[in-house]
Write a structure and sequence with these properties.
The chain is of the alpha+beta class. It is 47% helix and 11% strand. The strands form 2 sheets. The chain has a 4-stranded antiparallel beta sheet, with helices on one face.
């Protein structure tokens, strides 16, 4: 039995390390030195395994496969190398951020501690089966796996014939992200300002959570007022990205002035347009932005007069973090559901749908809406035409309902008709003529 080290052949030896009963092998193949535990304490068995291991490594070398010093190769290490490759590309495409998000938040956690030998088609299928992916997310995930497989082949870690296959994946229909109905929006606006005070299991939220929730309240109002996409469109904006521009004109020899607050949106989907888009912010949106400044920069005495001079990211907390506001909003809506206050599923993206739908119902030109929200007229027509079907005037025309007659009956009988079942029988022609005559007299004296 050897004490510490025994050479078996050129470039092959076995040895023991301090405080270990097992033998280790030291092997050199093609200039690469490998040290591995043989997992046995018996000397003869250790020698046999050392010879066997050297034979295996030499065969891999002859086949052109990688000879790595580590016995176990983990998928996590491969993915991290792919991410490094993405970061090293001279041209950084916007989609790379999506790839890295999928790698870091989904693929690595799923394949944690999974070795290359277990990285099979079945394992990849298990991954996709565990996800509910829209068409877009499915394609992003498939591209990520293609990059992993290409890396394995190019680095000769796996032989081409042994490369796993990306299975066919079913796409899931994305859950509808509804616009807020009036009653639910009223409830949300009533409870969101106090969400930071809500306790969980009798414990108050810590100061970070409180600040996140206070910012969420203002962020929600900003999204309602602007229709901006959640995520990069707003998350990259700084206070000093907002520019104040005075507007003045004369009317009846009087000088009329007001301040317009403008901001350029250059991130997110708008990024594909070289110049981005410039939008005007409502007074409500500006007030919420100022309020965020007061929350996150208490030492700066932020006001309507000086907020545009701050270089801080608008959504950045006093402790220099930006929350996942979509997750916090889900916590809030879950709380409302548990309290039986709302039933409909909403996301922060519902603010955008509400903004667009509201402006359409107000008769704002669809072209102006499209330019403002960074969409196309065709896209808005495709996804928002249904709002017309919910308008009472359109319902009346489609159902041939005579609303003028209903209103006339209400006026003449001084009765509020609020339900179809409460409407009296249709009047005769004589009664109708009498109604019209009475109505004419009524409006003569009630202009």
């Amino acid at each position: 039995m050897v004490a510490k080290y025994e050479r078996l052949a050129k470039s092959l030896a076995i040895y023991r390390v301090k405080n270990s009963n097992n033998f280790y092998a030291r092997i050199r193949v093609n200039g690469v030195e490998i040290k591995r535990s043989l997992g046995v304490s018996d000397e003869d068995e250790a020698k046999f395994r050392a010879w066997e291991l050297r034979s295996e490594l030499e065969n891999r070398n002859k086949q052109g496969l990688a000879i790595l010093a580590n016995k176990k190769i983990y998928i996590e290490d491969i993915v991290n190398n792919v991410i490094i490759q993405l970061d090293s590309k001279k041209t950084q495409l916007q989609i790379y951020k999506d790839y890295k998000t999928v790698f870091s938040n989904f693929i690595i956690p799923f394949f944690k501690n999974v070795e290359i030998v277990d990285f099979t088609t079945k394992k990849i299928r298990d991954y996709f089966d565990s996800q509910e992916l829209s068409v877009t997310r499915k394609n992003i995930n498939k591209t990520c796996f293609k990059m992993i497989l290409e890396y394995l082949e190019e680095e000769k870690i796996i032989k081409k014939n042994d490369i796993p296959i990306i299975p066919k994946v079913k796409s899931f229909k994305v859950e509808a992200r509804d616009a807020f109905n009036d009653e639910d929006l009223k409830i949300i606006l009533e409870h969101l300002p106090n969400f930071h005070e809500i306790e969980k299991n009798g414990r108050k939220a810590n100061f970070k959570t409180v600040e996140y929730r206070k910012i969420l309240n203002e962020y929600f109002l900003i999204l309602l007022e602007t229709g901006l996409r959640t995520g990069e469109e707003f998350i990259n904006l700084r206070f000093n990205d907002i520019k104040k521009k005075k507007h003045s004109y004369y009317k009846d020899d009087l000088l009329i002035e007001n301040d317009n607050y403008l901001v350029k949106i250059s991130k997110g989907k708008t990024k594909k347009y070289s110049n981005g888009r410039v939008i005007a912010l409502s007074s409500k949106a500006i007030n919420s932005i100022v309020n965020i400044g007061k929350i996150t920069q208490q030492d700066k005495n932020i006001t309507i007069d000086n907020f545009i001079y701050s270089n801080k990211l608008i959504l950045e907390t006093s402790f220099n973090k930006i929350a996942e506001f979509s997750d916090i909003f889900k916590q809030f809506t879950d709380y409302l559901k548990e309290s039986n206050l709302i039933n409909t599923h909403y996301t922060l993206y519902s603010c955008r749908h509400t903004f667009i739908t509201k402006r359409l119902m107000q008769g704002v030109d669809i072209y102006l809406i499209a330019k403002y929200v960074g969409s196309s007229v065709e896209m808005i027509e495709k996804h928002y035409d249904n709002y017309k079907l919910s308008q009472q005037a359109h319902i009346d025309s489609l159902t041939d309902f005579n609303r003028n007659e209903l209103e006339l009956k209400a006026i003449l009988n001084n009765v509020s008709y609020t339900d179809y079942d409460d409407i009296p029988p249709d009047p005769t022609e004589a009664e109708l003529l009498s109604f019209y005559n009475q109505a004419e007299e009524f409006f003569k004296h009630n202009k």
